[in-house]
């Protein structure tokens, strides 16, 4: 067998689902090169392999493990205090490639990262740079944010003030009267968001990128509202929950259709304005106005806004849901004649099984797509259908436990090679297409556990199928070790030593 097959063998074994811990640990050796890194960040790992990677002297191995989205993040807790700040940053940042479902980190890891006094012994990063990675990663669940106001560590209570408007009145009062002066100062500093005069005074000093956030979320003075109309910067006002009724009415009659559209489903819109907007010349405005009986609260309004306008190929991150509408509201949405509301219902993972079955057959494609991607009870046949018809969702669908791995043989002749590759891996397929024109299909076919040992050996010797064959779960463990012996020994042997060995008489 050619030396050029060593790397495909290593890659295949690294992702072989049947490879035991003692096999995988060998791939942490320096001689395995990049394969060890790929394995540590790209697959689920046995406990013994995780332990070995956590103790590994190379920070890159530990860093790869820190970005693993398949390992229970609780197992990664030691990396929050890793000597290398680069490893800590990998744990704080999103796994790569970024998954649609963003895993929340456990509380103990979050507390450790958010209260760290340094960025690691290597001095590569500061603690604030690592925290910046964490805050942009979306791995902090909203439940943790909501608990920070009552945490023992003052630094966490200070951070709680940064989300001032998400706090309850009691939490705000508690922080303003906190025993720690630094917490009190932070609370006083952040309380400006609900003080119209302070907002008006502060706005000129706020950067242009943040002005939209302020205008859309903070309490605004009448003068500031008038300035928005004068400057034609009223878009953020359309979702601001603090504006007065007369301002809402002005926005509902704004000459720009997009402004009227954003106002049309506000829960504080009066019945006369609702009736008026239902007759609006713009279809999108009329549609939003038709939805008005449903968004009776701001949580319901936000749930609808998260769905409208995203389209069938939306791959926005799936994060920890905020406190949202009641289950009864979602159930009512599922029965609505409005496709938008059924899409909202399909996006809620708590929807009852009976309604999941109904929406799985919905006439609206976006309803079915959202159900497939976001609901844990979505039927396997729907997941497969969306996989075939919507390539944008394939990476996410393949991570779902309910995604079917059998029953795909009818797709073996599909023109899309990614669909054929799925079918080629189906263990019920009588003859996996190991000679398909596309290499990804060949690899998938070579990894099919239905292959006989004789065929598998021949595929290990062919460049197009060597990686797939090495990843085949039916490959005997002694054969895995033999392939590793050859590949790792060759990689660890200097070329000059190899030449001397070749010229030594037998």
Your description of this structure?
52% of the residues lie in helices and 0% in strands. It is mainly α. Mean pLDDT is 93; it is low at 497-506.
Q: How large, in whole angstroms, is the Cα Rg?
A: 28 Å
> Number of helical runs?
32
Low-confidence stretches: 497-506
Largest sheet: none
Content of β-strand:
under 5%
Q: Total number of β-strand segments?
A: 0
Query: Which structural class matches the secondary elements?
Result: mainly alpha
Shape: flat
Helix content: 40-55%
Termini separation comes to 21 Å
Mean residue pLDDT: 93
Keywords:
single chain; mainly alpha; flat; 0% strand; 32 helices; 506 residues; disordered C terminus
Map the helices and strands.
Blueprint (H helix, E strand, L loop, with lengths): L5 H9 L6 H6 L7 H9 L4 H8 L4 H8 L18 H8 L14 H8 L12 H11 L4 H6 L6 H7 L8 H8 L4 H10 L5 H7 L5 H10 L4 H10 L13 H8 L4 H7 L7 H7 L5 H8 L7 H8 L21 H8 L4 H8 L6 H7 L5 H10 L5 H10 L4 H4 L19 H8 L14 H8 L6 H8 L5 H5 L6 H16 L2 H9 L3
Helix pairs in contact: 1-3, 1-31, 3-5, 5-6, 6-8, 10-12, 17-19, 21-22, 22-24, 24-25, 27-28
Structure, briefly:
The chain is mostly helical. Helices cover 52% and strands 0% of the residues. The longest helix is centred in the last third of the chain and has 16 residues, at 477-492.
């Amino acid at each position: 067998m050619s030396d050029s097959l060593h790397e495909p063998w290593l890659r295949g074994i690294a992702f072989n689902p049947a490879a035991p811990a003692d096999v995988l640990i060998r791939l942490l050796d320096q001689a395995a090169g990049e394969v060890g890194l790929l394995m540590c960040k790209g697959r689920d790992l046995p406990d013994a392999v995780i332990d070995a990677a956590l103790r590994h002297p190379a920070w890159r191995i530990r860093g790869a493990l820190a970005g693993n989205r398949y390992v229970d993040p609780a197992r990664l807790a030691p990396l929050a205090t890793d000597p290398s700040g680069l490893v800590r940053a990998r744990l704080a940042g999103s796994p790569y490639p970024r998954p649609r479902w963003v895993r929340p980190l456990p509380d103990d890891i979050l507390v450790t990262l958010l209260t760290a006094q340094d960025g690691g012994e290597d001095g590569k990063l500061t603690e604030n740079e690592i925290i910046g990675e964490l805050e942009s990663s979306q791995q902090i669940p909203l439940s943790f944010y909501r608990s920070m106001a009552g945490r023992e560590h003052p630094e966490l209570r200070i951070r709680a003030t940064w989300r001032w408007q998400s706090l309850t009145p009691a939490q705000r009062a508690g922080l303003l009267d906190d025993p720690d002066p630094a917490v009190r100062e932070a609370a006083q500093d952040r309380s400006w968001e609900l003080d119209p005069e302070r907002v008006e005074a502060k706005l000129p000093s706020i950067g242009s990128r943040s002005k939209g956030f302020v205008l859309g979320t903070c309490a605004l003075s009448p003068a500031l509202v008038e300035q928005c109309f004068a400057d034609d910067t009223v878009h953020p006002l359309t979702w601001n929950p603090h504006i007065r009724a007369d301002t809402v009415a002005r926005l509902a009659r704004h000459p720009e259709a997009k402004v009227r559209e954003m106002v049309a489903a506000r829960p504080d819109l009066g019945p006369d304005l609702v009736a008026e907007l239902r007759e609006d010349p713009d279809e999108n405005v009329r549609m939003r106005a038709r939805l008005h009986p449903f968004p009776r609260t701001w949580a319901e309004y936000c749930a609808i806004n998260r769905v409208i306008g995203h389209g069938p190929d939306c791959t926005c991150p799936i994060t920890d849901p905020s406190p949202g509408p009641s289950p009864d509201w979602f159930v009512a949405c599922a029965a609505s004649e409005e496709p938008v509301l059924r899409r909202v219902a399909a996006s809620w993972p708590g929807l009852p099984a009976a309604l999941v079955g109904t929406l799985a057959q919905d006439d609206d494609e976006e309803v079915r797509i959202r159900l497939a991607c976001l609901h844990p009870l979505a039927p396997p046949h729907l997941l497969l259908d969306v996989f075939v018809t919507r390539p944008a969702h394939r990476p996410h669908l393949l991570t779902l436990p309910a995604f079917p791995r059998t029953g795909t043989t009818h797709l073996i002749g599909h023109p899309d090679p990614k669909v054929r590759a799925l079918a080629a891996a189906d263990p019920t397929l009588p003859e996996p297409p190991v000679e398909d024109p596309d290499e990804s299909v060949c690899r998938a076919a070579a990894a099919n556990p239905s292959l006989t040992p004789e065929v598998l050996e021949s595929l290990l010797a062919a460049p197009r199928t060597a990686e797939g064959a090495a990843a085949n779960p039916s490959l005997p463990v002694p054969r895995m070790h033999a392939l590793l012996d050859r590949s790792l020994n060759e990689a660890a042997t200097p070329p000059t030593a190899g030449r001397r060995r070749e010229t030594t008489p037998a």
